[in-house]
Automatic annotation (TrEMBL):
The lineage of its organism: Bacteria, Pseudomonadati, Bacteroidota, Flavobacteriia, Flavobacteriales. Keywords: Signal. Residues 1-20 form the signal peptide. Residues 36-59 are annotated as: Disordered. It comes from the Bacteria. This is Uncharacterized protein.
Length: 332
């Protein structure tokens, strides 16, 4: 359910929209080496969350133990790597959103959270008229929020790593996967404000081992002959569009168990379905990160350690398979 820049009236007319909500966290030092998952690959990093208020140019550790993002309050502009360690028992992701000037976490909590959750509750109940009335409370500045990427879906007790280019400004880190009762994780606390300063990280753009492209016309183009091991993937957004649920397309990497029902994954990726993006995630799949949505022409990077087996790249849009945005492949 990724947000896009579109007039508010479109949200109200079709009774669908995307969620931006909030949570605050205390920073915590974590010096342990990141878990290496036995089922499938994940980013191999060392997580050492810096003390509150201290810059760690270019590298930012983010830790979730329940329904929170524990991380820095301020980072420098330029290329930034987010190392997201999901220590919780839930599937999460880390979406990076740039807010318009003068807006921040309090605006998200007081102006966006209530109408979005209220509207979603009505949609789940099939009460479209009541949902439209709830969505009428969404502020117009919501359409000015910009998507800057972030890590894709990441399964419990796993780590994901994503590198993006950030301009100075106010950003929100968000996860809006749903609880079993349909409440968004962002309503439970998964939103964190960070300030990006004019100081530069001086980090160079990553060098990719493999390049993934995604476009509205061609869908996801998977690199050929992907080998096992630790690799950096570039995700280039050749074009971008809003889909039926008003999401922009993104790319999530998934381990696929032998015999897993790929149709269940295809259906689950649409947040607008009553059980879409809702806990529990479908059996037979392990989420390994990827790249959240970005504007056309932008490129994000993610690092992952792959073992031999079956994988999929999938986008968080309605029926991604029909859009060529659910592609399976094998790693040797």
């Amino acid at each position: 359910m990724n947000r896009i820049n579109t007039p508010l009236c479109l949200f109200l007319a079709l009774c669908t929209s995307v969620l931006i909500f909030g949570c605050n966290f205390n920073d915590k030092k974590d010096a342990e080496e990141a878990d290496k998952n036995e089922m499938a690959g994940e980013a191999t990093v060392k997580s050492a969350s810096p003390e509150r208020g201290k810059k760690n140019p270019g590298i930012t550790d983010v830790v979730t133990t329940s329904m929170e993002f524990k991380t820095l309050d301020e980072v420098s502009s330029g290329w930034n790597t987010f190392r997201y360690k999901n220590q919780s028992n839930e599937t999460h992701f880390l979406l990076v959103e740039k807010y318009p000037e003068g807006k921040g976490i309090e605006n998200a909590r007081k102006e966006l959270a209530p109408p979005f959750q209220e509207g979603m509750n009505f949609l789940v109940e099939g009460k479209n008229e009541e949902a439209m009335k709830a969505f009428e409370k969404i502020p117009a500045w919501f359409s000015e929020v910009e998507m800057y990427g972030g890590t894709g879906l990441i399964s419990p007790k796993s780590t994901a790593q994503s590198t993006i280019f950030m301009e100075p400004g106010t950003y929100i880190l968000e996860c809006y996967v749903k609880m079993p009762n349909g409440v968004f994780h962002s309503m439970e606390g998964m939103l964190k404000e960070i300030r990006v300063t004019k100081d530069s990280t001086d980090m160079p753009e990553p060098t990719a081992d493999y390049r993934i492209s995604i476009s509205s016309e061609k869908g996801i183009i998977v690199p050929s002959n992907i080998k096992a091991g630790e690799h950096t993937f570039a995700v280039h957004f050749e074009s971008q569009k809003k889909h039926e649920n008003f999401n922009w397309h993104d790319v999530h990497l998934v381990w696929v168990d032998e015999g897993a029902d790929i149709e269940k994954l295809n259906e689950w990726m649409n947040w607008a379905n009553p059980t879409g993006l809702q806990t529990p995630s479908p059996e037979g799949f392990k989420f390994l990160g990827g790249s959240q949505e970005m504007a056309a022409g932008k490129t994000g990077y993610f690092k992952v350690n792959l073992r031999p087996g079956n994988y999929a790249l999938v986008s968080e849009v309605p029926d991604p398979k029909s859009k060529n945005m659910l592609k399976t492949f094998k790693v040797q």
